[in-house]
Design a protein that fits this description.
CATH class of the largest domain: Alpha Beta
Shape: globular
CATH superfamily of the largest domain: FAD/NAD(P)-binding domain
Number of strands: 18
Number of domains: 3
Radius of gyration: 23 Å
CATH architecture of the largest domain: 3-Layer(bba) Sandwich
Distance between the termini: 47 Å
Structural class: alpha/beta
CATH topology of the largest domain: FAD/NAD(P)-binding domain
Helix content: 25-40%
Number of helices: 17
Strand order of the largest sheet: 3-2-1-4-18
Length: 452
């Protein structure tokens, strides 16, 4: 039996709306797909691939037997937010699936989505307040994935937990970064209600460090958990950066999400009829591509300084490592030109408005393992890529040293600006702010593994 590849709604249909791009696979399809699981004696999907340690083979067996309640019980043992990971996790578990050595990996993420949605439909997802209170109070700074995970972890141990979020709603990048066509924001609201019923308190629209002192939180709580992510986006400081029409990726993505969820009356950026250029080849860049296409952009181009990855798993990342290989998102399939080996030299424009960017082709030198290490320019390859709108999607650089939370709590930082927690003073750091920008599933695992 082959793996199902048709997991998206029709292209013309999905790119004209903001609903989730993936279709729901039927129970019958997933029973067949999970039946492909070999129930390995050493399940790498569980022990190596999944940061949460999900019991993948056991879940697969339950689904294959049509026992969805059992599947949910197994899933919820390790995963507190499967409705999020089942939509946006790149499925590290599948990359380490033993079946993938000779055929195609077992479908795991889509079965997880069906498990959790079946559980919600049947009323199996209910609040689990602690049996006893321990009399201790914790303040969580940041309502993103790691903060929510830490809040759940502490609450179930009997802590009184308050989550402070500077934006109008909780979710962090789940709500404000990831587009609605990948994650319906109603799912966050649905989970928030359950968390509140468990006794977790949310204070939104309050920025700790400015509206409220982080030092005061430390003095009035038994523990403070810092979960502020990596708020500093990597910029591209080349000539012409001051021109209008050049934006950081989150300016587009956050603005669109705030508009679609009713926080603001109109999106601050509209790509309709414009030539759009996205600089940066990762997931955030792909999200900009999909957003611009839904706006009705005249054209969308995505460029990347790195070389084009191979079509198949590169020998530098053998199984069960996460494979270095080309990935094509649903947004790319909706209409996007992709180019690699291009270094941006300067933005060009007229009347203070960008009209494009000058780029140059580069060649890479590779390590003995086959990974790109450094590049040099190819002579006589400069060209102009025309663009009315340019989005910079080049990742995040960490926590700025002048962040008031850092100074008010007296936290040290690594050379890469990650925060160093101070358990002696009951100050803990989880998620991206402690480890550097990474995946949502790793942020959830960080909060879940919090030890106080």
């Amino acid at each position: 039996m082959e793996r199902i590849h048709d997991i998206y709604r029709p292209t013309d249909e999905r790119k004209s709306d903001w609903r989730e791009v993936e279709r729901f696979l039927t129970d019958e399809e997933l029973v067949e797909q999970t039946s492909r699981c070999m129930n390995c004696g050493q399940p790498f999907c569980h022990a190596y691939g999944c940061p949460l340690g999900n019991l993948v083979p056991d879940q697969n067996r339950a689904v294959a037997q049509g026992n969805w309640h059992r599947a949910y019980d197994l899933l919820s043992e390790h995963s507190d937010f499967p409705e999020f990971t089942s939509r946006i996790c790149p499925a590290l578990c599948e990359a380490s699936c033993v079946h993938g050595l000779d055929e195609e990996a077992v479908m795991i993420r889509q079965s997880e989505k069906r498990i959790i949605e079946t559980a919600f439909d049947n009323g199996w997802v209910v609040p689990h307040p602690p049996a006893t209170e321990n009399g201790k109070r914790a303040a969580v700074i940041g309502g993103g994935p790691s903060g929510l995970s830490a809040a759940v972890t502490l609450r179930r141990r009997g802590w009184a937990v308050t989550v402070y979020e500077r934006r109008a709603n909780i979710g962090g990048l789940l709500r404000y970064g990831i587009p609605c066509f990948k994650l319906d924001k109603a799912l966050i609201d649905r989970r928030r209600k359950i968390l509140e019923e468990e006794g977790i308190r949310f204070v939104t629209g309050i920025e700790v460090g400015k509206d409220l002192s982080a030092d005061w939180l430390a003095k009035t709580n038994d523990a403070v958990i810092v979960a502020i992510g990596t708020p500093a986006a990597r910029d591209l400081k080349i000539p012409g950066r001051e021109l209008n029409g050049i934006h950081l990726a989150l300016e587009l993505l956050e603005g669109e999400n705030r508009f679609l969820t009713g926080e603001i009356d109109a999106p601050p950026i509209n790509a309709k009829g414009k030539k759009v250029l996205v600089i940066g080849g990762g997931d955030t860049g792909s999200d900009c591509v999909g957003t611009a296409i839904r706006h009705g952009a005249a054209s969308v181009t995505q460029i990347e300084i790195m070389p084009r990855p191979p079509d198949e798993r590169d020998p530098s990342t053998p199984w069960p490592l996460w494979p270095y290989m080309l990935r094509t998102s649903s947004s790319h399939k909706e209409g996007c030109e992709r180019r690699w080996n291009l270094n941006s030299l300067r933005f060009i424009g007229a009347d203070n408005q960008t009209t494009g960017v000058e780029v140059e082709t580069v060649e890479w030198e590779f390590s003995p393992e086959g990974r790109p290490m450094k590049f040099h320019a190819v002579p006589d390859t400069k060209e102009i890529i025309e663009a009315d709108l340019i989005f910079l999607a080049m990742g995040f650089t960490g926590v700025p040293a002048d962040n008031p939370i850092v100074s008010q709590l007296g936290l040290s930082q690594t050379p890469r600006t990650a925060l160093i927690q101070d358990p002696a003073r009951n100050i803990y750091c989880v998620g991206d702010c402690a480890s550097g920008a990474s995946l949502v599933v790793r942020a959830l695992a960080s909060g879940k593994s919090l030890e106080i």
